[in-house]
Each structure stands twice: as structure tokens, then as C-alpha cells.
Amino acid sequence: MNKPKPFSMIREFHLADWFTLGNACSGMGALFSVMTFLQTGDPRHLQYACALIPLALAFDVLDGRIARWRQKSSALGRELDSLADVISFGVAPAAIAYGCGMQGLYDRIVLVFFVACGVSRLARFNVTAEKLSAGSDKVAYFEGTPIPTSMVLVAVLWAAAAQGALADGLWGGVWWLGGYRLHPLVLMFAVSGSLMVSRIRIPKI
């Protein structure tokens, strides 16, 4: 029995997989920027966090195109892509929203719901991808909105941060329900999460 070579898993990565890791690293960078904002109170770090999500999307688009161009894809690559997407388009946008001030009990419940929907959406895609591809190398359509559509939410948060509309100054203000806070703006995350787990068919371009 041959002894596995050091870093043998890394040696098996295709070029597209490295772009996928770029996606994940961008998402982690956004999380660190949010943490820095919470430590320093400097809103520029929130804007840095928001800016890293489009970079993650660029890596996400490129990894798929490179895989098709080189005609090299794998189950590992698909799983890696989903895990990276959870970080960059699920956890990071929720963390940015928290940093912007959506920190009430109801806000947190909605943000957890959003991330759970994103994870569920990606899991459903992975187990149905073969059926949806109908024998081709590409799925014909998405069921539910793709998780990168959270870019729209991030764009709204970037605009709010740029205008200084943070904490209880968030657009829509704050409601007190049963002694706990709810920022109405967080409801856009509830809508986004619900659309991700819906059965809406969206053609894949």
C-alpha cells in the first residue's frame, strides 16, 4: 500500500478549485472586516466587507467558466463551491447585517433563518444537480433563487453604511415587539431566504 504524499488533496485540485477558494477567502475577509468594525466603530470597515462580496461573486463566476473551459469538474469541486458560497453569500451578508445594527432578538432569528435557507438551497442543488442537468454538463434551471442573489441585500447595506444609516438609524427605524427589537429592514433577508427554498424555476444562463 502506497503511503499518501504530503498535501495529496491539494495536488488533486483543479484550476477552478483555486478560484473557488478565492471565493471563500473573500467571504472570510468580509467577516473579519465586520469584526473590525465592531471593535473600532469605523464604518469604512463595513464598506470593505460589502465590497468583498462582489469579489467573491467574481471568483464564483470564474470558477464555473474555467471548469467548463478546461472540461474538468469533480464532486469535490461541487462541494467546495457550495461551502464557499455558504460563507460568502450566506454567513457574510448576515454578519454584515448584524454589524449594521440588526442585533435585536427578532433580527437574529431572521438572519439565522436566512442562513439556514441558504444552506438548504445549496444542499438541495447538490443532490438534484444530476437530474436537473438532464445528461449535459450544466443544469438547465435553478429551483429557488441562487444564494449569490444576496448581493442585492449587500448592496442595500453598503448604501446604508455609506449614508451613516446604522444601528437604530437604519432605514425603516426600529420596532419594539414584546420588549425586543426588530429592524424592519431585516425582513428583506426573510424574503430572500424564502425565495431560495421556494420551487420557483429560474433558467440558468
Q: For the terminal residues, how far apart are their CA atoms? A: 46 Å
| Spatial ordering of strands, largest sheet | 1-4
Radius of gyration, in angstroms, nearest whole number = 19 Å
Query: What's the average pLDDT?
Result: 86
Cα shape: globular
Brief synopsis:
With 205 residues, this protein is mostly helical.
Structural commentary:
The protein is mostly helical. Helices cover 65% and strands 6% of the residues. The chain has 7 helices and 4 strands, in the order αααααβαββαβ. It has a two-stranded antiparallel sheet with strand order 1-4. A two-stranded antiparallel ribbon has the order 2-3. α3 runs antiparallel to α4 (75-100) and α4 packs antiparallel against α5 (105-133).
Task: Draw up the topology in text.
Layout: H1 8-11, H2 15-40, H3 44-70, H4 75-100, H5 105-133, E1 141-143, H6 151-162, E2 175-177, E3 180-182, H7 187-196, E4 201-203
Antiparallel strand pairs: 1-4, 2-3
Helix pairs in contact: 2-3, 2-4, 3-4, 3-6, 4-5, 4-6, 5-7
Highlighted features:
mainly alpha; 4 strands; two-stranded antiparallel sheet; single chain; 205 residues; two-stranded antiparallel ribbon; 7 helices; 65% helix
